[in-house]
Amino acid sequence: MPSIRQRKTDRGVPLALLQVASGEVQDGKSFREVAKSLDICHVTLYRFHKKRLRLESQGSHTPPRVGYWTPKKVFSTEQEMLLRDYLMEAADLYYGLSSKEVRKFAYELAKNYNCNFPQTWAEKEMAGADWLTSFLKRHPTLSIRRPQATSLSRATSFNRTNVKKFFDNLSAVLTKHEFVTQEIWNMDETGVTTVQNPGKIVARKGTKQVGSVTSAERGTLVTLACAVNALGNSIPPMMIFPRKKFHLFFTSNGPPGCIGRANGSGWMQEEDFLVFLKHFQSHTKSSQESKVLLILDNHSSHLSVEGINFCRSHGIILLSFPPHCSHKLQPLDRTVYGPLKRHINSRCDNWMKTHPGTTMTIYNLPGIVKSALPLAATPSNIQAGPCVEPGTSSSATPFSPLSIRPHPKAGPRKQTTKGRKRRETAVLTDTPMKDQLEAEKKRSNAKKSKAKTKINFGQKTIPNKKQKMQASSDEDEAQYCIVCLESYSRSKEMWLQCCSCKAWAHKDCTDGSAFYTCHNCESD
What is the CATH number of the domain that holds 347? Predict the structure, then answer.
């Protein structure tokens, strides 16, 4: 790798001063006289004047080059800046180039624009690794990063049309209701698991595998719902546990004022969202005379008709983000939940080290969230999450990387009737949107009522089987529902068995499907 020469002195004569001195010499003065009067070296002036006359005799009006420069530089400074902008824009469009692709791209540019490049570039058909290293040093805004996997839906949905429509709705709501800073709230959920991602440790150098103890191979997820406002304040969170019934001891050691819910999946459901809205209203004291704005995503649980009716009667205006845009527009996702996950991982590591041989359960998570949440949901973090508008492409120039490798552009995605209905940003509490959701709810309930009349295969009642198992051996362990942990001996309901792990659960604790798979196997 070639060494980069570091300049150690500030000596040198500006070009403008040399041009003035050369003009005086051309008028008839001697080199030493002009050099002494301007305090410059007479040899430097002599060389500059000689080069200037030679260039003028060749018909060139470009002044001689002075100072330090790199004679073997492939691209000029302007060309490298264009290449730098192209690489940053490609990364912003989720189609960034790897280090090897950058080297191949640099060779294609140098070959297309007849730049003077080393012979080894032509032999390998790519730029050298030393050129890439020097290029990154000359442009410190670039670095080699490991990208985060981004789905095609997120990459295509975050566009100017969707974002503009959201800001139009936001502007209309702010103009109509004249909300102040403390009346604008944002809400989102995140998952907290019992298996942490271990942090870095100090270990023996050269060891290929370094381990750190975790609670289990796969964890159980608990949903955490938070709400913050534009002033930097927050309300106590809500935690949803993957259990059939909720007990108060679940959140006894959680954050002060937090509430809890439980359902079979541990995810936010419509009934849970209604409970969160009541919790939110009790802390914000919203009413028809003092309304607040709540911005949230388009999750199906947030489109509850009961929840929207509650918001309309208690002065809560609901505004939804565009679908698949929360990674750019959601303040909680951008600046709060990232630090929160890091603090939770750190505290989970400490918990495992202070409780050796003990398995962490979901009942230990509220205490960990209690100590981690105040460090993440700080006013500075909350206010540091502004909305980011999509970037625009650079204008065309004679040296254009886009002419060699244009950015990929996907056409409009096909509309299908399969899966969930495609949503868009909207004011959910407005009457047209509310009526639309009510109509969809009626159609959905009609389909479910028809589905209940069909025969469900794969169901079995196991009272006799349980009795035989208990009578055959006293050493057999009691059977428990893997969702609500209720013993079979206390239940006479119908049970379902997981197709993968062969564990049992109440039919009411599951989705009732013919081929039931428990939430632990689904997480794999």
Answer: 3.30.420.10
